[in-house]
Design a protein that fits this description.
Layout (H helix, E strand, L loop, with lengths): L16 H14 L5 H8 L6 H10 L7 H8 L4 H7 L3 H4 L2 H20 L1 H4 L2 H14 L8 H7 L7 H26 L4 H10 L6 H8 L3 H13 L11 H17 L1 H7 L1 H20 L12
């Protein structure tokens, strides 16, 4: 279990160093959302619908919560989609059983994507130690998904400890990102539309399939952003839109700086180097759908 109420003071890192480190850690964490191994484990519990699998594995650390809690914490999912599966999924399997199945699925996924040699390598053990060190400076305040996962035990196996630490750091940043989105006055679907417009978010097709929104709702959100001067007639970000997205990421960086400052510049650089190699291997192994990102 990792958490602190105050963060040590360390020298500031180079610009966006923490963000770059987070991005490679989050990349490997996120492979399990698209993993047939995790889906197979959840199917063994009787959970087969892709959305139910997604909500169960990410929300299980919160306990047997209902749709309202998950909609609030996840932020950019349509509440009606969440309510189709929660709290009903907990009548099929307990959060404890889901967490155990997730761990088995993650183990299989990482071994398949990275290979046993990488999984058991000294570099993996080193990365796990560095990532866990960073989590020592995470804060629970106003971070429900991070705080819930911080209550879970650290796995013994280095590759699972690395994945666990990556999950903590991902949820810590994600909870802060939600605060930044609220400050920018973007609701859930507007956050998705503006992110997709950057070219770095999921395509509308994948947003519809996974977040529950439809084309009419997407167009209505786009129109609201157009009225604010954030998106132009072609669906591209305006100068103001680009600036708002930059501000959101900078604010997210600010709220998430403590773990990486705690780790220190050399540690962040080394963890980024190791994590880049891991996610590069996973990407080459086809960890994500080829058509997931972009504007189309």
């Amino acid at each position: 279990m990792t958490s602190s109420t105050t963060s040590p003071t360390h020298a500031a890192l180079p610009p966006r160093a923490g963000r770059r480190c987070h991005n490679v850690l989050n990349g490997l964490h996120s492979t399990h959302y698209f993993s047939p191994d995790v889906s197979r484990e959840l199917a063994g519990l009787g959970i087969t619908h892709p959305s139910a699998v997604n909500f169960a594995v990410r929300a299980a650390a919160l306990g047997p919560v209902g749709a309202g809690v998950v909609t609030a914490a996840f932020y950019n999912y349509k509440h009606a989609l969440v309510a189709e599966h929660l709290p009903a999924v907990w009548r099929t399997a307990s959060p404890e059983d889901v967490l155990a199945a997730r761990a088995r699925g993650v183990d299989t996924t990482l071994r398949r994507l990275l290979g046993d040699e990488v999984v058991s390598s000294p570099e993996m053990a080193e990365a796990a130690g560095l990532a866990l060190r960073a989590t020592e400076a995470c804060s629970r305040s106003a971070r429900p998904l991070y705080s819930a996962h911080a209550d879970l035990p650290v796995p013994d196996a280095p590759h699972l400890a690395y994945w666990h630490a990556a999950t903590l750091l991902r949820e810590h940043r994600g909870d802060g990102h939600v605060s930044a989105l609220l400050g920018a006055e973007l609701d859930g679907i507007e956050a998705l539309v503006s992110h997709t417009a950057t070219g770095k978010g999921m395509t509308p097709k994948w947003n519809f399939a996974t977040r529950g929104w439809n084309q009419e709702e997407w167009e209505a959100a786009t129109e609201r952003l157009r009225d604010r001067g954030l998106i132009d007639g072609e669906g591209e970000l305006t100068e103001s839109g680009v600036e708002l997205r930059r501000h959101i990421e900078a604010e997210t960086d600010r709220l998430d700086r403590a773990p990486y400052e705690h780790l220190g510049e050399a540690g962040v650089e080394r963890l980024t180097e190791l994590g880049t190699a891991f996610i590069g291997t996973a990407l080459q192994a086809g960890a994500f759908p080829a058509d997931m990102l972009g504007k189309a």
